[in-house]
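In pairs, describe these two lines:
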Amino acid sequence: MGAIFQSLGRTIVAGVVILLVIMAIAGSFAKTGDMNWWRFFMRWLHVLSGVMWIGLLWYFNFVQTPSMPKIPDEHKPAVSKVIAPAALFWFRWAAMSTIVTGLLLAWMNGYIGQALSLKAPFTAIGWGMYFGLIMWFNVWFIIWPKQKMALGIVQVPPEQKAAAARMAGMTSRFNTMLSIPMLYLMVAQQNGGL
């Protein structure tokens, strides 16, 4: 059992195996011909992706950024050269996966047009989708390009590196701010929160 937890890959495979066993016991495989099951599955993928995206966003804002001033200078390269690039890889691809699965889910459920045009009864989820799209744009077109400069992945002069770090940080905080109403709107649509 210990060997499973010594490898992230084996841990993920074990989680998928447990899921498949649960699905087999519940008879889920018999339902795969049903469009409702595929809508559910897409929602699960969307939630799974969103948990990773927002979890990493909050990790950066609640843990990594506030902790950096407390880390001795000789240890900071471990964060900026190893941890941050890896976390940013999963962060940006989780953002992409969340957006793609969310749009596919809205299309599969037949409300993508109404939601994006903010028409009732999909106004709440429409606003949530727009907040998510803004956040996704920020991840791919502001945070990641600026972080590449700030982390030294792309070489720039020191003053540009500092400015890039500030912009990435402020944009990440902006996304953290938007994540609060976005999550509420996404949940409110289905659960009578508005």
Q: What stands out?
A: The mean pLDDT is 95. The chain has two domains: 1-31, 33-191.
